[in-house]
Amino acid sequence: MQPPEALWICPKCGEKFATKNTWHSCGRFTLEALFAQCDPVVYETYKALEKLALEVAPFHVIPQKTRIVFQLRTRCAGGTPYKSYFRFRFMARKLIQHERIVKVESYAKDQHDHSVKLFTPEDVDETIGEWLRLSTEYGNQVGRLTT
Questions:
Q1: Domain span holding position 41
Q2: Which of 127-133's residues contact partners 24+ apart within 8 Å by CB, and which partners?
């Protein structure tokens, strides 16, 4: 098996991407700014998610203007804070049907973006951990379809 190609690093902002010259909005953003308009429990919920994510894999956590992404080789999980909840999103190679999943966007046969609403730190449970583990296959670019 060939080692993966090195990630491209944007010379302006320093962020890493799997593809050279990937379009993005350069900027430095903070978690504090992202959660400024949220109920305090939303930040607590996010911190529980981040803690679990870092137990699953060595994700690079990137705050952006409106969301947070968890990156391995590619960005494969993260979410968006809202006033009263955190919308957790994760990519998976397979389509997952579960009562907690509120939305799925499919981009290809092996690219499915799942959304889950997290209201409290207690919502960050073993099911979320399993979905984070599934996202690592996508994030490490393992199991890509070649046809």
A1: 29-139
A2: 127/98, 127/100, 128/49, 128/52, 128/88, 129/52, 129/55, 129/56, 131/77, 131/90, 131/92, 131/96, 132/52, 132/53, 132/56, 132/57, 132/70, 132/77, 132/90, 133/56, 133/57
Dump pLDDT digits (tens) for 62-98.
898 899 999 998 889 999 999 999 999 999 999 999 9
Helix, strand or coil, per DSSP, at residue 56: helix
Query: What CATH number does the domain containing 96 carry?
Result: 3.30.1460
- How many folded domains does the chain comprise? 1
Residue stretches of the chain with pLDDT short of 50? 1-3, 146-147
CA distance 56 to 130: 9
Give the count of beta carbons closer than 10 Å to the beta carbon of residue 119. Answer: 13
pTM above 0.85, yes or no: no
Cβ-based neighbour number of residue 135 at 10 Å: 28
